Amino acid sequence: MSRGHETRDRSPKADTRRGRSGRTGFTTGANAAAAATAATLGLVQGRVPETLECLLPNGQRAVFAITDGRVAGDRAHAVCVKDAGDDPDATNGAHLTAEVQRIPGGGGEVVLNGGPGVGLVTRAGLGLAVGMPAINPVPRRNIVENVRVAGAALLAAGDTLEVTISVPGGEEMALKTLNARLGILGGISILGTTGIVRPYSTAAFRASVVQAVRVAAHQGQTTIVFTTGGRTEQAAMATFAQLPEVCFVQMGDFVKAAFTAAVKHRMQHIIVGAMVGKLTKIAQGLAVTHAWRAELDRDLIAGVAAEVGAPPDLVEQIRTAATARFAAEGLAAIGLAAPLHQALAGRVIESLRRLYPGPHRLTVLACDFDGQPIASVAEEAHD
Q1: Is 359 exposed, middle or buried (0-12, 13-18, 19+ CB in 10 A)?
Q2: Terminus of the chain with fewer CB atoms < 10 Å: N or C?
Q3: What b/e sequence results for 267-290 when a residue is b if at least 16 CB atoms lie within 10 Å of its CB, and e otherwise?
Q4: How far apart are CA 291 and CA 285, in angstroms?
Q5: Residue 57 region by backbone torsions, left for phi larger than 0, else alpha for psi between -120 and 50, else beta
Q6: Does residue 9 carry a pLDDT above 60?
């Protein structure tokens, strides 16, 4: 990877300030609501509309295109294809599919089910009961609300509307997400707190970090391992092999979100695995370590280099270098890679202890650019 960057399973990308077009899209929840509403209108009107306006969870209204609409007796079918805009998304292009069945005299209820391609919740801590389809609470309410409006005449007559959301290919899409680790099996999650996908947004990734901590806590785990990407996670899994997979959470750039969740759920031991660049930014005290949020503190990394014995000319070069990698490579060339990472890990612990106080213990696993552990520093006992 260029610039020594590490990849994450679900990586938030650069924001629109980096020359992106900034086209927004819609969440799986919004598309599911549109499909369900269209199918419901098909039962009411005898024909599924090709476009319709739908209420989003944020109170706005949006127009959706509908495909494959058909009505057969008391059943209607509609599809809304997800367009995530300029946000890279594993579910972009997903066919959110709704089957709505009218049950005469059923009591005037809206019943929401998950079909093929929608994941099934198998662990506690997700805000959904075990055994339920992975349709999160906000999109669930939004789907039901839109169906109630579209099917008001049928519901008023005492008919029940049974809505089933499915996603062809959803099981394969889910392999590109963290669903399996969270205990969501067999498909994707139906998500979206606003209905809008912001270009290169980070909300979904941040939410998945918090959710992963909650799941670990509900499994009775008291140790959590935060890593910044795939290579550091592999290193951490090898180093702390005694821990179950649920303890490992790729926090990406979201230090504050991760630590706030860990403290909230009373984790007793918090481990951080990262490379030199992210370690430096965490030591700076940044809540989010993404490149566009704040520049690297070159004085900090230069100071650490001087502390472990780097010659003055190299220290000055580090102070003006573009990346922390320059420091790591420069000190590695003179046999000081391990001391640099150990000292930097110590700075990280000091910063995290100050920003996120609590009874937990801290450990930092510093990795090289190949994802190999180079230093592990555990916090000294504290009151």
Answers
A1: exposed
A2: C
A3: bebbbbbbbbbbbbbbbbbbebbb
A4: 14
A5: alpha
A6: no
Do 238 and 157 lie in a common domain? no
Instruction: Specify whether 155 is located in the same domain as 282.
Output: no
Residue 217 in contact with residue 124, Cβ under 8 Å? no
228's tokens: 């910044």
Based on the fold, state whether residues 356 and 250 are members of the same structural domain: yes
Query: What torsion do the CA atoms of 294, 176, 272, 374 make, to the nearest 10 degrees?
Result: -100
The pLDDT tens digits for 47-72 are 999 999 999 999 999 999 999 999 99
pLDDT tens digits for range 17-35: 333 446 788 999 999 999 9
Percent of the chain with pLDDT over 90: 76
Of 149, 171, 197, the last residue of a domain is 197
**Domain limits at 304?**
2-9+202-378
Task: Judge whether 383 lies within some domain.
Answer: no
Report DSSP letters for 145-209, one per residue.
Answer: HHHHHHTHHHHHTT-EEEEEEE-TTHHHHHTTSSHHHHTEESEE-B--SSSEEPTT--HHHHHHH
The structure tokens listed for 103 are 């049950």
* 261: Cα within 13 Å, side-chain hemisphere: 26
- Look at residues 156, 177, 197 and tell me which one is the last residue of a structural domain: 197
Rg of the chain, C-alpha, whole Å: 24
Q: Would you tell me how many other CB atoms lie within 10 Å of the CB of residue 243? A: 18
CA dihedral 254, 257, 258, 260 (to 10 degrees): 150
Residue 237's contacts (CB-CB under 8 Å, 6 or more residues apart) are: 243, 245, 248
What are phi and psi for residue 163, nearest 5 degrees?
Answer: -105, 130
Main-chain phi, psi angles of 211, to 5 degrees? -65, -40
CATH code of 152's domain: 3.30.2110.10
**For residues 214 and 126, is the Cβ–Cβ distance under 8 A?**
yes
Residue 342 structure tokens: 């150990």
Residues 6+ apart with CB under 8 A from 357: none
Q: Which residue shows structure tokens 């924001």?
A: 15
Model-level pTM? 0.69
Dihedrals phi, psi of 67, to nearest 5 degrees: -125, 165
Residues 224 and 192 in one domain: no
